[in-house]
Amino acid sequence: MRIPKVLALVLAGGKGSRLGALTQRRVKPALPVAGTYRLIDISLSNLVHSHISDVWLVQQYLPHSLNQHLANGRPWDLDRSHGGLQVLPPFEGAEGEGFAQGNTDSIYRQAGQIRDFDPDLVLVLSADHLYTVNFLDVIDTHLAKEAGLTMVVTEVSEDPSRYGVVQVDDDGLVTGFDYKPEEPHGTLVTGEMFLFDTGLLLEALDELATRGELEDYGHDLVPYFLAHHRVAAHRLDRYWMDLGTLRSYWTAHMQLIDGEGAVLDDPAWPILSAQPQLLPARVHRSARVIDSLVSAGAEIHGTLEHSVVGPNVVVEAGAVVRDSVLLDGVVVASGADLERVIVDIGATVPGRAIGGPDRVTLIGADGTVDSREPLD
Q1: Residues 168, 172: Cα–Cα separation, whole Å
Q2: How far apart are CA 70 and CA 146, in angstroms?
């Protein structure tokens, strides 16, 4: 059997505006996850373990922190002479120049390079999600169904109206698709992983460009394929979470602590990352630590309950942190009492009560407090 040539196109240039201060100084794929990882690690690790080594990463918004972490692909063994990781920033002076106006437009601006590379299949991923998947299984589904497009789909327990909602028949073929509908039909949604036949993808992009319809693929590219080609669904029955809001970002971390979230420590499928080289965390005799994830370089003097602590965090004696996520380099002063709080990188938290049981509160790097994400 001939193994298809697969190109992975990772879209990593979105602003992530719903995450407030967390993405004011960095692109969303550069966000810390589970203390020691970055969100981009999820996509790249899944690709490498799936033996997909031709990976193009499309950038646009605030790329600097992400580029520093990528280290030319070395943590994922993608720094190779043939293939490997290529970073595609916006450019001027040739076809496809300028800034993209949506994710379909982002793909279209790489059409010339895709045509020259000549893969059999193009796997398009958004770098905004927490999950594990073997993309070889997705390729098997695509070939077995003789599809022009195969989309990874999953069930969600939350309101599906913020996603692309999918209807699938008994043969595993997609019969309907509604992008962020006000009245969704079902709870089966796209996981933002799309596997395209390359020739059909390039034809679709050219047609949509002619019509002036290059926006988000939920509005144009996916409906085009449903209207003109066979579209298959590959069901992901394991954990999947879109980390696009403060609430989902906080929830994913609480689920990791409880063992209900994504499995990031499977020896057969480890999440790879460019982690800093630091001393192990230091838990002082005055500390009380219960059911938490504590990263290297942290110093815990106070009370830590059911929380995730990033590298080089300091929780001073007399401080209490519950159900919270402290990102890299945070200092929590003595007398602070935090509950259901996300603290941005490098912030210093004063010695007072912040947060509460009914909402997720964000403390920005400058100390600004934002309590706009209520919990049901």
Answers
A1: 6
A2: 35
351 token code pair: 């010695």
Q: Is 143 exposed, middle or buried (0-12, 13-18, 19+ CB in 10 A)?
A: middle
Angle 198-211/221-228 helices, nearest 10 degrees? 110
The span from the CA of 293 to the CA of 257, in Å, is: 7
116 φ, ψ (degrees, to nearest 5): -70, -40
Given this model, what pLDDT does residue 244 score? 87
Look at the alpha carbons of 373, 36, 44, 266 in this order and tell me if their dihedral is positive or negative: negative
pTM listed for this prediction: 0.91
Statement: residue 87 has pLDDT above 90: no
Rounded-to-integer distance, Cα 144 and Cα 146, Å: 6
Kindly state the tokens that stand for 215. Answer: 């926006």
Decide yes or no: CATH 2.160.10.10 for domain 282-374.
yes
Give the residue range(s) of CATH 2.160.10.10 domains in the chain.
282-374
Query: 296, 347 in Cβ contact below 8 A?
Result: no
What's the pLDDT tens digit per position in 166-219?
999 999 999 999 999 888 889 999 999 999 999 999 999 999 999 888 888 888
- At CA 13, angle to CA 9 and CA 14, rounded to 5? 120
pLDDT of residue 1: 55
Fold assignment, 6-258: Spore Coat Polysaccharide Biosynthesis Protein SpsA; Chain A (3.90.550)
Q: Rounded to whole angstroms, how far apart are CA atoms 332 and 347?
A: 8
Asked if residues 7 and 54 have their Cβ atoms less than 8 Å apart, the reply is: yes
* Spatial separation of the C-alpha atoms in residues 255 and 341, rounded to whole Å: 15
Classify burial at 68, counting beta carbons within 10 Å of its beta carbon; exposed 0-12, middle 13-18, buried 19 or more.
exposed
Residue 290 · residue 279 · CB < 8 Å: no
Between the alpha carbon of residue 153 and those of residues 10, 51, 124, the distances in Å are: 18, 21, 14
* C-beta neighbour count of 213 within 10 angstroms: 16
Q: Stretch 296-322: mean pLDDT, rounded?
A: 97
The token pair at 182 is 């006000």
Location of each CATH 3.90.550.10 domain in the chain: 6-258
